[in-house]
Design brief:
- With 329 residues, this protein is an alpha/beta fold.
- The protein has two domains: 7-239, Spore Coat Polysaccharide Biosynthesis Protein SpsA, Chain A; 243-312, no CATH class.
- It contains eleven helices and twelve strands.
- Helix 2 links the parallel strand 2 and strand 3 (61-64).
- Helix 8 (245-260) runs antiparallel to helix 9, helix 8 (245-260) packs parallel to helix 10 and helix 9 (263-286) runs antiparallel to helix 10 (290-299).
- The longest helix has 24 residues, at 263-286.
- The chain starts with 6 loop residues before the first strand and ends in a 21-residue tail after the last helix.
C-alpha cells in the first residue's frame, strides 16, 4: 500500500523561535499540492518556541525534549515518527523558495537510485553559501592558498578537494568529487535514510552530515547537488545561541578523524586541525573575548582524550550530563 503522506519534514530546534515561523510558513508555500507532515524536535530551548508552535502551527508534531540531546539524536527521533515516502531534513533557520521542494522531489522521482539530494543555499542577501563541500582530507589544505589567489572569486568548475570554493552553478553528484551535501537541507527516501542507519548520534553537534556523506561515498551511493533548487539559510544562527558551540565543533572533528581516517592520514590531519584551533584561539584572545578563549582552551583536551582512553569505543560516546563532551570518558 502506497504511503498516504508524500513528504515528512524533520526539524531540530534549539532557541530558534526567531526563525521557526518563517521556516514553517515557507514550507506551507512550498508544499502546495503535496501531502506532508512536519515534525519538530525541540532541544529544551526554553525560549517560548513550543508555545508559539502550538498556537500558530497546530498541525505540527512537536516533541519537547527535557534536555538538549543534540542535533543527530533529535533528527533520528523525528525520523522515527515519520511516515512519508520521502524525508526532508531542514535547519530551523532556513526558508524554502516556493519551487524548491518540487524541484528536488521531481529529481528524486527521475532518479530511482538510492541517493540524497540538496539544493543551492544562499544568505538573506542572495550570497552563495556552500551547500556541497569537500569531505575532510589533507588535500583540502590547497584551498586556502588558492582562495587567496582567487581574491574572493569562485572556481568555475568543480574540483576534488575544492568544492567549498566552487561556484556551485550546476547539478553534480558530489561523491565523484569526494564531497558531501550539508545538513541544512537534505531530501531522500525515508526507507533509504533508515537503511543508512540515519545519523550517528555520537556527534552532538556538527560533522553528522559529513559523516553521513562519508558513509554514502563508502557505500557507493550518489549524493546530488541540485543547483536549480534554492533555499535561504540564515547560517549558524541557532548554533550561535549555544556558548559551547566551539567545543562541540572541535570535539566533532576529532571524533570524525578517529572514526573515518587511516592512522597516518589522521595524524597528519589532526596536526593541521590543532594548528587551526590554536590560530582560532589566538584570534579571539586578541579580540579580548575571554569567554570564548577559555572555551577554546578547554577544547585542546579533545586532542589528548582519544589517546588516553582505555576503551576507544567508549571514548566516542556522548555523556549528556557533561557540558563539555571532550572530557567524557
Amino acid at each position: 500500500m502506497a504511503n498516504s503522506i508524500e513528504l515528512s519534514i524533520v526539524i531540530v530546534t534549539y532557541k530558534s523561535k526567531e526563525y521557526i515561523s518563517r521556516c514553517i510558513q515557507s514550507i506551507r508555500e512550498a508544499t502546495q499540492g503535496l501531502s506532508f507532515e512536519i515534525s519538530i524536535v525541540d532541544n529544551a530551548s526554553g525560549d517560548g518556541l513550543a508555545d508559539l508552535v502550538h498556537a500558530e502551527f497546530p498541525e505540527v508534531i512537536l516533541v519537547e525534549n527535557e534536555k538538549n540531546e543534540g542535533f543527530a539524536r533529535g533528527i533520528n527521533r523525528g525520523v522515527k515518527l515519520s511516515s512519508g515516502r520521502y524525508l526532508a531534513i531542514l535547519n530551523p533557520d532556513t526558508q524554502l523558495n516556493p519551487e524548491a521542494l518540487k524541484i528536488l522531489l521531481n529529481f528524486l522521482e527521475n532518479h530511482p537510485l538510492n541517493c540524497i539530494v540538496g539544493p543551492r543555499t544562499v544568505d538573506e542577501k542572495g550570497g552563495l553559501i556552500a551547500s556541497c563541500r569537500s569531505l575532510p582530507h589533507i588535500g583540502n589544505i590547497i584551498k586556502y592558498p588558492l582562495s587567496l589567489l582567487l581574491q574572493g572569486k569562485k572556481l568555475k568548475n568543480p574540483k576534488r578537494y575544492l568544492l567549498d570554493i566552487w561556484e556551485q552553478n550546476r547539478t553534480i553528484d558530489v561523491t565523484k568529487y569526494n564531497g558531501y551535501i550539508t545538513g541544512a537541507c537534505i531530501i531522500t527516501q525515508l526507507d533509504f535514510f533508515k537503511k543508512m542507519s540515519m545519523l550517528d548520534e555520537r556527534y552532538f553537534l556538527y560533522c553528522e552530515d559529513i559523516d553521513f556523506g562519508f558513509r554514502m561515498r563508502q557505500e557507493g551511493y550518489p549524493a546530488f547537488f541540485v543547483s536549480e533548487a534554492s533555499v535561504i539559510h540564515h547560517s549558524g544562527r541557532s548554533a550561535s545561541q549555544n556558548v559551547q558551540s566551539p567545543s562541540y565543533f572541535v570535539d566533532a572533528y576529532i571524533r570524525y578523524i578517529h572514526k573515518n581516517f587511516t592512522f597516518l592520514h589522521g595524524i597528519a590531519y589532526e596536526i593541521c586541525f590543532f594548528l587551526f584551533v590554536l590560530g582560532w584561539m589566538m584570534e579571539v584572545f586578541l579580540r579580548r573575548e575571554r569567554g570564548q578563549t577559555s572555551i577554546l582552551l578547554k577544547t585542546l583536551r579533545c586532542f589528548i582524550h582519544p589517546y588516553c582512553s582505555t576503551n576507544k569505543a567508549n571514548s566516542y560516546g556522548i555523556k549528556e550530563k557533561d557540558a563539555n563532551h571532550c572530557s567524557s570518558s
